[in-house]
Design goal:
With 516 residues, the chain is of the alpha/beta class. The protein is 36% helix and 23% strand.
Length: 516
C-alpha cells in the first residue's frame, strides 16, 4: 500500500490527519491512502509566486514550449507503467487509460508546437494596432502579458492525466506556475505523474506543485493575479464561484461542470446508412468509455418518434455485446465506476430516472461479486418533457432515448432544456435541418459536433476534447472555457491597451507597428 504525498515548496511532504483509503475499483481492495492535512498553503503559494513565476517568466514563449515538449515525451516514455496504474486505481480498461494518457501527452505536444511559433518574449499582440487620433501617430495596441500569480487547478477523478495535462499546458506556456490538486479516488495516477514531472527536472523549481488532498483553505489566500480552474460538479463549482474571498479579491475562476449533453438524430437518416452507423457507434462508445464517467458523454438521445423502436433495438444489441469486468483483463471493454460513492450515486440516479422512463437495458440492481460495477443502462422516456430527464445527470454508463416529432424546432427546444451543455452532437445529411439546429442551440452549448456521411470514418467522436477547439459551456456547464488554441492561455494573461506615439508603442511592447 502506498501513502500519497504532496510536492510543495521544493520537497515531498507526508500528509497528516485521518487517512482516506484508495481502492482498486474492480476488487474493492485498499491499495493506497491520502492524508488530507500537512500542507502549509501560504508557503506553497509564496513559493509559486516568488520562485516558480519569476523562473517561468525569465523564459520566452518558445522556450516554455520546449518544456511542454519535454513533458509530453516523458509521459509517452512511461506510458506502459501509467496505463497499469490507471487500470488498478481508476478502473480503466487499457483503451480507457490510453484515452486519458494520450490526451494528456497529445495536449502538451499541441501547445508545445503552438508555442514554437509565438514571439520570443513575454508579450503577445491581441489583434492589430489601431489609429486613435487625427493621424496614425497616436496609436493603440492591445497586448497580453503573463499575470504574476499562481494557477490553482482542481482536477476531477475521471481524467487524472488529461485533466491535469491540459490545464498545465496552458498555464505553463503562459508563464504562470501551477498547483495541481488531484481528484482523490483516482489520485495514484496523478501522483505518479507528479513524481515523474519532479524527477525529470524539466520544469523550473516552483513552476509545478502537487497536492492529492484537500486545498479548500488555500482558496482563502488567493489574490487578484491568481486563477482557479475547476473541473467538477455544478454544486462544487457554485461553492467556489461564491467563495466570498475569491469574490472580494476578483480572483479569476474558470468552471467546467457537469452537463446534460444530447445527441440528435435527424429525421432524414436511414437505417444502415453511414450516418446511422456513425450515430450508433459513437453512442456506444460514449456510454461505455470510462464507464460513462465523462463530462462530454451523451445523456439524452433525441430520436424521431418513427425511429425510436429501431434505435432502441440497435443500441441494446450493441450494448449487450460490451463485456463488463476487471479492466486488467484484455477482453473486457468496460470497467467499474471509480469509487463506492460513485457507485451509490449512479444507482440512485438510475432509480430516479426509472420513475419517468422505462429501463430497456441494465438498471440499478447490483451486479454479482465485488467491485463497483454498473451495467450499461439504456432508458426510454415516457414523456419527452419530463423535467428530470433534462435536469438529472447520472455520471455513469447511462443514457435516455427521448422521442421527438422530427421537427427541428422541437429538437432545439429539447437540447436547450439541458440549461447549458458542454457538447451536443447531431447526425443528419439534411443541410437545412443542420443549419437551423446549429443556429438554435449554439447559445446554450460550448461545442456542436456534426456527423454525416462525409465524416463517417474520418472524425473523432464528440466525446473527445481536442486542444484546438474550446472545451466548456454556458449555464449549468459552468460558464467557463478551456483550450481552444491560444484562447486557452487567456485566463492566465492580462489584456492591456498600450497607447502613445506609434513608434514608442512598438518599442515598449516589442511588437512591430511601423512608423508614423
Amino acid at each position: 500500500m502506498i501513502a500519497l504525498q504532496s510536492y510543495v515548496s521544493g520537497r515531498w511532504t507526508a500528509g497528516s490527519g485521518d487517512p482516506v483509503p484508495l481502492y482498486e475499483p474492480a476488487t474493492e481492495a485498499v491499495i493506497g491512502e491520502v492524508r488530507p492535512g500537512g500542507v502549509d498553503f501560504a508557503a506553497t503559494l509564496a513559493y509559486a509566486r516568488e520562485v516558480g513565476g519569476p523562473a517561468l517568466r525569465a523564459l520566452t514563449f518558445p522556450q516554455r514550449a520546449e518544456l511542454l515538449k519535454g513533458l509530453a515525451a516523458m509521459l509517452h516514455e512511461h506510458r506502459d507503467e501509467l496505463l497499469e496504474i490507471a487500470g488498478r486505481n481508476g478502473g480503466n480498461t487499457r483503451g480507457d487509460a490510453k484515452f486519458d494518457l494520450d490526451g494528456a501527452s497529445g495536449t502538451l505536444a499541441f501547445y508545445a508546437k503552438l508555442g514554437e511559433g509565438l514571439p520570443a518574449g513575454n508579450l503577445l499582440a491581441d489583434g492589430d494596432g489601431v489609429q486613435l487620433g487625427r493621424t496614425a501617430r497616436f496609436w493603440g495596441q492591445h497586448v497580453l502579458a503573463p499575470r504574476p500569480g499562481v494557477a490553482v487547478h482542481i482536477n476531477a477523478f475521471n481524467f487524472p492525466a488529461w485533466g491535469m495535462g491540459e490545464k498545465m499546458a496552458c498555464a505553463l506556456l503562459a508563464g504562470v506556475p501551477v498547483i495541481e490538486k488531484a481528484g482523490t479516488p483516482s489520485a495514484m495516477l496523478a501522483f505518479r505523474i507528479a513524481q515523474l514531472v519532479v524527477e525529470s527536472r524539466i520544469l523550473p523549481e516552483g513552476a509545478f506543485q502537487f497536492v492529492p488532498g484537500s486545498i479548500s483553505g488555500m482558496l482563502d489566500l488567493l489574490g487578484p493575479m491568481d486563477a482557479v480552474a475547476l473541473t467538477g460538479s455544478a454544486r462544487t463549482g457554485a461553492l467556489i464561484r461564491g467563495n466570498s474571498h475569491l469574490v472580494a479579491r476578483n480572483v479569476r475562476v474558470n468552471i467546467e461542470a457537469d452537463s446534460i449533453n444530447s445527441a440528435v438524430l435527424g429525421p432524414d437518416v436511414e437505417s444502415g446508412s453511414d450516418t446511422w452507423e456513425q450515430f450508433l457507434g459513437n453512442l456506444t462508445v460514449d456510454m461505455t468509455q470510462k464507464a460513462g464517467q465523462k463530462c462530454t458523454a451523451v445523456r439524452r438521445i433525441l430520436v424521431p418518434q418513427a425511429l425510436v423502436a429501431e434505435v432502441q433495438e440497435a443500441l441494446v444489441e450493441r450494448l449487450k455485446a460490451v463485456k463488463v469486468g476487471n479492466p486488467l483483463d484484455n477482453d473486457v471493454r468496460m470497467g467499474p465506476v471509480a469509487s463506492s460513492s460513485q457507485l451509490r450515486d449512479v444507482r440512485a440516479g438510475i432509480r430516479q430516472l426509472a420513475e419517468v422512463a422505462e429501463v430497456v437495458l441494465g438498471g440499478a440492481e447490483p451486479m454479482p461479486g465485488k467491485g463497483y460495477f454498473v451495467s450499461p443502462t439504456l432508458l426510454r422516456a415516457r414523456d419527452a418533457s419530463a423535467p428530470r430527464i433534462h435536469d438529472l445527470e447520472v455520471f455513469g454508463p447511462c443514457a435516455t432515448i427521448v422521442g421527438y416529432d422530427g421537427a427541428v424546432q422541437t429538437a432545439i427546444d429539447l437540447c436547450n432544456r439541458g440549461g447549458g451543455s458542454l457538447v451536443a452532437s447531431a447526425y443528419s445529411d439534411d443541410r437545412a435541418f443542420v443549419e437551423r439546429l446549429v443556429a438554435g442551440i449554439s447559445p446554450w452549448h460550448g461545442r456542436i459536433w456534426l456527423g454525416s456521411e462525409k465524416t463517417h470514418g474520418q472524425a473523432l467522436g464528440p466525446g473527445a476534447v481536442l486542444p484546438a477547439t474550446v472545451h466548456g459551456g454556458p449555464g449549468r456547464a459552468g460558464g467557463g472555457e478551456e483550450l481552444g488554441g491560444l484562447r486557452g492561455l487567456h485566463p492566465y494573461l492580462q489584456r492591456t491597451a498600450v497607447q502613445g506615439d506609434r513608434a514608442v508603442v512598438g518599442r515598449a511592447t516589442g511588437l512591430e507597428t511601423g512608423g508614423a
